[in-house]
Write a structure and sequence with these properties.
Structural class of chain B: alpha+beta
Strand content of chain B: 5-15%
Number of strands of chain B: 9
Helix content of chain B: 55-70%
Order of helices and strands of chain A: EHEHEHEHEHEHHHHH
Radius of gyration of chain B: 43 Å
Largest interface: A-B, 19 and 18 residues
Number of strands of chain A: 6
Structural class of chain A: alpha/beta
Strand content of chain A: 5-15%
Number of helices of chain B: 17
Helix content of chain A: 40-55%
Strand order of the largest sheet of chain B: 5-6-7-9-8
Oligomer: heterodimer
Distance between the termini of chain A: 36 Å
Distance between the termini of chain B: 61 Å
Chain lengths: 214, 584
Amino acid sequence: MRVVLADDSVLLREGLAALLEGKDFDVVAQSGDAEDLLRKVGAHKPDVAIVDVRMPPTHTDEGLKAALEIRQRFPETGVLVLSAYVEETSALELLSDDAAGIGYLLKDRVSDVDRFTEAVRRVGDGGSALDPEVVSRLLGRRRREDPLAALSPREREVLGLMAEGRSNHAIADALVVTERAVEKHVTSIFTKLTLPPTVVDHRRVLAVLAYLQG
Amino acid sequence: MSSLRAALLALFAASVAMAAVMVALVVSSDHENAKEVTAVLGPFIGLSFCGTGIFAWTRRPHNRFGALMTAVGFAWFVAGLTQANDPWVYTLGVYLGPLYLVLVGHMLLAFPTGRLETTQARTLIALGYLDALLVQVPFFLLGGDISHPADAPRNAWALTDNPDGAQVFGAVSQLVAAGLIVWLAVQLVQKRRDASPPQRRVMAPVLWTGLALSAALVVAVLSQILGGAEPIATSPSVVSLIAFAALPWAFVVGLLRSRYSRAGAVGDLVERLNAQGIEGESLRDALADALGDKSLALAFWSRGSERYVDAHGQPFDLPPAAARDRAVTEIERESMPVAAIVHDAALLDEPGLVRAAGAAAALALENERLEAELKARVAELQVSRAKVIEVGMAERRALERNLHDGAQQRLVALSLQLGLAKTKLREDPEVAERILDGARRELASALEELRELARGIHPAILTDRGLAAALDALAGRAPVPVDVETVPEGRMPMPVEAVAYFVVSESLTNMAKYADAEYATVRVLRENGYAVVEIEDNGIGGADPSAGSGLRGLADRLAALDGRLEVDSPPGVGTTVRARIPCA
């Protein structure tokens, strides 16, 4: 899988590159700012671009803007946005139209190498990856007459993992249950929340997010 | 005796001589019917003008009004040549006779400044001179009849004998004169209306007399045009003569009146100030009433900000010294400025008047000043409080940025390395060990950065060991030798020490960045209830305290403690930063 990296910290960039290459990714280019990133994405057409939110010149949300632009101009390239802190609004902005090929993770997630590379692969394959922190905050929102209260603890876990963008297979792995069991939970959740059933993972994410957003 | 005084004295002597000539001419005149009256009144009127004119001239040498009045007197004496028996002198007298009336018009319109202020006035007077001196010429040359009464000498300048032709010019001249006099009256009324109240008080007697004179003259001229055919100067009507004779005395009365009423007004003011507690607007009103100037404004000296403020403590700009219509009189008390009275420049004609009123109100003004200063202080505090908050916000933003770009970034990298090391631990322990070594270095750097950051927020050494130790530590980290010369023994209040520390820290940072200095000296002294922090370097100088955000931030921080920052940075000599922080 071909990757382009963008972060203004060389240190982190090099570290990430080493990590990804150790896991058989092909890091085709690195850049330190959004403009350079867009150029390199255009040139290399990678499967996925990993982008830091804060980059020169203003060090605010250049990465987010670049991510949206990449999605628009190069739909074949997935974008995984890394940030020192995560916000629901930014997440929903990123995933609003189409969660396919979009990821939004806390930077710290890089320390869990396997989970991180799994997320990169998922985004590169056109899936999505939403940080558990965002998901838990969305799930934890207080609602009047909360329909989530009707869910069993297991179902809530499954809902969270769905929101993160994981497939049934990955959910089954994470919970150490059979895929069949996961499917049963999913059907139950969709029924309880009266959501239209969807098969494709990234559509499922959107549906769940739209629901959680209320 | 100054040369001006000598000249004016000579001028007065000349006017006395002219009066004597006039008396002689009247006495020996063959055609004067009322010799006694004319011999007394004529010189009296002329000397009145010359005397008051020369007096006004001595008092205000730069005001042309005195000169104009004197000129009227002399023109009057010249008109007296009509008493001569010699035809040529008589004709000259008749020709120049009306000149004094034009000069009176000029004088009235130029009153009291001595200048013709408007284009209308200038045009009017120019036409008057033309009419008196030019239009009359053909009248004389064509043999106009000037023998009034009948036994007066004949026209000595007649080239031909064409009295009817001459009369055309005579009539034109008189008609123009009548028109000009009406215009003059209108201008005088306008002048009165445009005058400020204090001006009006001085001007009233002269203007009213002038109006009476022009009215009488119009009547006289018209009756001449309708009735006879003689130039106006030869027989001015009795009424116009009285009004004319009264003019110099009206001027004197105006002067006395303003002086008298103003002296009384200051007395009233004192009484009013004593009778009731006067403050705010009513103090201004009392002064405005006393000085007869409704436009009067008060400004108070703020010792804190060393500038004038209004009664609400807002900055007040005095009118420029060059302003012609507004003047400023500053009031002091115990040789400290208290207030400035901004008033009509006409009040300056009375030297000392405004000052006297101001002195009478000085105590009330001082009270008012204290209040205005308090308000100014409150406004200043509001600004400085807002600035402190702003500085705080900016510092927090910088801190967040530093944390994000520095330590946080390093810790993420560290976690990344640890993650990598974990994956390598079993299959490739050597690589894992190398990665862990890198991680340890990363951790050391992160710790160092955090320490640096913490020191920037608040140096622990300052709390633990005091200012001297903290400044020594700062000096030790500076890129050029820094000599900490004196620091007071014993602790100062924490906020003072903290600000002193940041003044030195920021100054040394600036020096390292811009000054190109070889060494610097730091001094902290306590004097007169202030802690004085001084940082001096031998660099290139030219630092601009308003340019850099660092120095401005310092000034704001100091302002929060009522302190002040001075930057003395002559190019090529070096920079001295001096902060004064109140510290009892």
